[in-house]
Amino acid sequence: MAEAHQAVGLRSSLTPDGAEVELSAPVLQEIYLSGLRSWKRHLLRLWDDFLTGVFPASPLSWLFLFSAIQLAWFLQLDPSLGLMEKIKELLPDWGGQHHGLRGFLAAALFASCLWGALIFTLHVALRLLLAYHGWLLEPHGAMSSPTKTWLALVRIFSGRHPMLFSYQRSLPRQPVPSVQDTVRKYLESVRPLLSDEDFDWTAVLAQEFLKLQASLLQWYLRLKSWWASNY
């Protein structure tokens, strides 16, 4: 329904003189509102969204990483190669009695950054792995070596006990279809419903639309595909 409402907002119409599309600020406003609604839904599911967002990691993995860093720091080892000292210098100076607190916060910030980098790496690896489609073309009961390797890597990076949207951020981004394909499929869908004369007139309007308005509307669609989860 949201996509239908945005399509109405474009105010496109077919006239005997050709296709007319009104492009104005409401179009960009609808794109903005669609992204805003998407993020509001995420905020309403804040904790579940956090768990699915960090999957296949977990909050316990952050605690384990932070504890390991604190233990190394206690043994006078610096796993950050000097980064925690630089973070401590950027923190406010609360006096000598809070020197231990600054070290604790520096370790927590470093552990969070390192944890986030590891999660991002896992998501990128899963997205690259899930983009592989070679297994679809293989005969039933047979599995090639690349597919076996791919399956083993997916099992390694996918984790255990996923939630409903755990792999949402790891799915490959679907490309925006070309406007030529969209128009072609539209003409194919209306062909059984129109007479020869009406279909020829519609085809002429479609070609005029491709020449005049299609490129700008396609740009709007690409913009929304980067802002909203459902374009």
UniProtKB/TrEMBL annotation:
MF term (GO), any: carnitine O-palmitoyltransferase activity
Reactions it catalyzes: 4,8-dimethylnonanoyl-CoA + (R)-carnitine = O-4,8-dimethylnonanoyl-(R)-carnitine + CoA
Keywords linked to the UniProt accession: Acyltransferase, Membrane, Transferase, Transmembrane, Transmembrane helix
Pathway: Lipid metabolism; fatty acid beta-oxidation
Gene Ontology biological-process annotations: carnitine metabolic process; fatty acid beta-oxidation
Transmembrane regions listed in the UniProt entry: 50-75, 104-126
Any one Gene Ontology cellular component term annotated for this protein: mitochondrion
Carnitine O-palmitoyltransferase N-terminal domain sequence ranges: 1-47
Source domain of life: Eukaryota
The protein, known as: Carnitine O-palmitoyltransferase 1, brain isoform
Lineage summary: Eukaryota, Metazoa, Chordata, Craniata, Vertebrata
Gene name, Swiss-Prot/TrEMBL: CPT1C
